[in-house]
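W.,

You were right to be curious about this one. When I first looked at the sequence I had no strong expectations either way, so I just let the prediction run and decided to look at it fresh. Below is the sequence, 301 residues in total, followed by the output.
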Amino acid sequence: MTVHTSSERISHATSAPLAAFRDFVALTKPRITLLVLFTSAAAMAVAPGHLTSVRLLSSLVGTALVVSSANVLNMWWERDLDAKMTRTSRRPLPAGRLDARSALWFGLALAAIATPILAAVNMLTCALGLFALATYVLAYTPLKTRSWLALLVGAVPGALPPLMGWSTVTGQIDLAALSLFAVLFLWQVPHFGAISLFRTEEYARAGMQVLAVERGEQGALRTILMFTLLLVASTVLVHTLGVAGATYLVVSIVAGAAFVVMAFAGLQVKATIPWSKRLFALSIVYLVVWMGALVFDRTAS
């Protein structure tokens, strides 16, 4: 018979809620949510007009909540698929640390809290946030097991936060805002295409028709290169529309050239997996550099 001391019982009683809290936080995918917030904040920084601190905070909080909701509901929906992949099998739902009903209600609650906060910013920003949520959960998530084109569908809500940031300041969407949307939309294809290449077997085992599974290695490599070229062109369009100036343009061209060279190299390499991991890492660095150049150029001028 095992005897637990009072201190051990207290420690267990306090650690269990803390562990559950960490698991609920994990469902929101904090790192992805933070990256999305950066894209929204960057758009706010370069959008023309005045922004109060209250509206800024409300937009960021509301955006964080609606993105977190989408991530939670996505993980709730895909819990059985996640259990089939090594990378995701230890997530709270497939590992059994949280029950599905709690995750579902948590995701819905986040959306319910986000809605009035975003509505207080303005109705356009709120509508964009809810559209992103609905598209991500109801269109992108179920389509992943049917076609690689789910990537393009999912890229839409992934690129909407800059529009939310822009509309927070201006109350409208114009061509300049859409150019930022285009950059984020196109960036996601080489970024997630790279993941599909070094996780092909896992995705195939789970039945997900991602880019490399459905189109094969060479098809994925060609698609990545094509969208990388379109991405660089879209960053130049941002300058052409007057969103940012010469400093931004130089940085975008240099960073874009490095991205294109790496994407083109994928068609030449024999070992695709190491290359795809490097491309994945480069895609994140590229996005950070691009956003930094955008904000620096606009705020310094």
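Here's what jumped out at me. Residues 7-13 have pLDDT under 50 and may be disordered. And, maybe more interesting for your project: The chain has twelve helices and no strands.

Coffee later to discuss?

I.
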